[in-house]
Design a protein that fits this description.
Blueprint (H helix, E strand, L loop, with lengths): L2 E9 L3 H12 L4 E5 L2 E6 L2 E5 L2 H8 L3 E5 L2 H10 L3 E9 L2 E7 L5 E6 L4
Parallel strand pairs: 1-4, 5-8
Antiparallel strand pairs: 1-5, 2-3, 3-4, 6-7, 7-8
Protein backbone atom coordinates (compact mmCIF):
# COMPACT_ATOMS: atom_id res chain seq x y z
CA UNK A 1 0.00 0.00 0.00
CA UNK A 2 1.17 3.52 -0.71
CA UNK A 3 0.36 6.01 2.10
CA UNK A 4 0.21 9.50 0.60
CA UNK A 5 -0.39 11.52 3.76
CA UNK A 6 -2.06 11.72 7.14
CA UNK A 7 -4.86 13.89 8.51
CA UNK A 8 -5.29 14.45 12.23
CA UNK A 9 -8.74 14.55 13.83
CA UNK A 10 -9.62 17.33 16.26
CA UNK A 11 -13.03 17.43 17.97
CA UNK A 12 -14.08 20.99 18.81
CA UNK A 13 -17.11 22.59 20.42
CA UNK A 14 -16.99 25.77 18.30
CA UNK A 15 -16.21 24.89 14.70
CA UNK A 16 -16.15 28.47 13.41
CA UNK A 17 -13.65 29.60 16.05
CA UNK A 18 -11.47 26.54 15.42
CA UNK A 19 -11.50 27.11 11.66
CA UNK A 20 -10.13 30.63 12.13
CA UNK A 21 -7.29 29.31 14.32
CA UNK A 22 -6.31 26.43 12.04
CA UNK A 23 -6.56 28.51 8.85
CA UNK A 24 -4.13 30.98 10.41
CA UNK A 25 -1.77 28.23 11.61
CA UNK A 26 -1.73 26.25 8.35
CA UNK A 27 -2.25 29.00 5.79
CA UNK A 28 -4.91 26.78 4.18
CA UNK A 29 -8.57 27.54 3.53
CA UNK A 30 -11.15 25.26 5.18
CA UNK A 31 -13.11 22.83 3.03
CA UNK A 32 -16.41 22.04 4.75
CA UNK A 33 -18.59 18.94 4.58
CA UNK A 34 -20.85 16.81 6.76
CA UNK A 35 -20.41 13.24 7.93
CA UNK A 36 -23.76 12.17 9.32
CA UNK A 37 -24.66 14.70 12.01
CA UNK A 38 -21.08 15.95 12.33
CA UNK A 39 -19.86 19.14 10.66
CA UNK A 40 -16.31 18.74 9.39
CA UNK A 41 -13.77 21.26 8.14
CA UNK A 42 -10.61 20.01 6.44
CA UNK A 43 -7.87 22.60 7.05
CA UNK A 44 -4.41 21.61 5.94
CA UNK A 45 -3.68 18.25 7.55
CA UNK A 46 -6.45 18.65 10.17
CA UNK A 47 -10.05 17.44 10.21
CA UNK A 48 -11.95 19.68 12.63
CA UNK A 49 -15.17 18.01 13.77
CA UNK A 50 -18.14 19.33 15.73
CA UNK A 51 -21.50 17.76 16.44
CA UNK A 52 -23.48 15.46 18.72
CA UNK A 53 -21.33 13.78 21.38
CA UNK A 54 -22.71 10.34 20.49
CA UNK A 55 -21.27 10.66 16.98
CA UNK A 56 -18.04 12.38 18.05
CA UNK A 57 -17.30 9.64 20.59
CA UNK A 58 -17.16 7.11 17.73
CA UNK A 59 -14.93 9.36 15.61
CA UNK A 60 -12.57 10.03 18.55
CA UNK A 61 -11.60 6.36 18.52
CA UNK A 62 -9.94 6.79 15.11
CA UNK A 63 -6.32 7.87 15.56
CA UNK A 64 -5.88 9.45 12.13
CA UNK A 65 -7.02 9.34 8.53
CA UNK A 66 -4.49 7.96 6.05
CA UNK A 67 -4.72 8.89 2.37
CA UNK A 68 -3.77 5.93 0.19
CA UNK A 69 -3.56 5.32 -3.52
CA UNK A 70 -6.12 2.50 -3.47
CA UNK A 71 -8.38 1.39 -0.58
CA UNK A 72 -8.76 -2.09 -2.10
CA UNK A 73 -4.97 -2.53 -2.02
CA UNK A 74 -4.92 -1.24 1.57
CA UNK A 75 -7.65 -3.75 2.47
CA UNK A 76 -5.56 -6.65 1.14
CA UNK A 77 -2.48 -5.48 3.05
CA UNK A 78 -4.44 -4.89 6.26
CA UNK A 79 -5.98 -8.37 6.13
CA UNK A 80 -2.54 -9.87 5.43
CA UNK A 81 -1.15 -8.39 8.67
CA UNK A 82 -4.15 -9.46 10.76
CA UNK A 83 -6.04 -6.15 11.00
CA UNK A 84 -9.75 -6.20 11.82
CA UNK A 85 -11.94 -4.30 9.36
CA UNK A 86 -14.42 -2.28 11.43
CA UNK A 87 -16.25 -0.48 8.61
CA UNK A 88 -16.17 -0.52 4.84
CA UNK A 89 -14.85 -0.40 2.35
CA UNK A 90 -17.50 2.13 1.35
CA UNK A 91 -17.60 3.64 -2.13
CA UNK A 92 -18.57 7.30 -2.47
CA UNK A 93 -18.74 9.62 -5.47
CA UNK A 94 -15.26 10.97 -4.59
CA UNK A 95 -13.52 7.77 -3.52
CA UNK A 96 -13.55 4.95 -0.99
CA UNK A 97 -12.84 4.53 2.68
CA UNK A 98 -12.55 1.90 5.36
CA UNK A 99 -11.79 1.81 9.08
CA UNK A 100 -9.44 -0.84 10.46
CA UNK A 101 -8.08 -1.86 13.85
CA UNK A 102 -4.42 -2.81 13.60
CA UNK A 103 -3.16 -5.82 15.57
CA UNK A 104 -1.73 -3.39 18.19
CA UNK A 105 -5.24 -1.97 18.78
CA UNK A 106 -4.75 1.33 16.91
CA UNK A 107 -7.70 2.37 14.73
CA UNK A 108 -7.19 4.21 11.44
CA UNK A 109 -9.38 5.35 8.57
CA UNK A 110 -7.99 4.73 5.07
CA UNK A 111 -9.27 6.86 2.16
CA UNK A 112 -8.59 7.20 -1.55
CA UNK A 113 -9.87 9.67 -4.12
CA UNK A 114 -10.81 7.19 -6.82
CA UNK A 115 -14.41 7.77 -7.86
CA UNK A 116 -16.67 4.97 -6.64
Amino acid sequence: MNILGTSLRVCVSDLEAAIAVYERLTGAEAQRFRRGGVSVAAVGCFFLMSGPEAELSVLRNITATLAVTDVDEALADLLAVGAQIIAGPVRTPIGSNLVARHPDGSVFEYVDRRAG
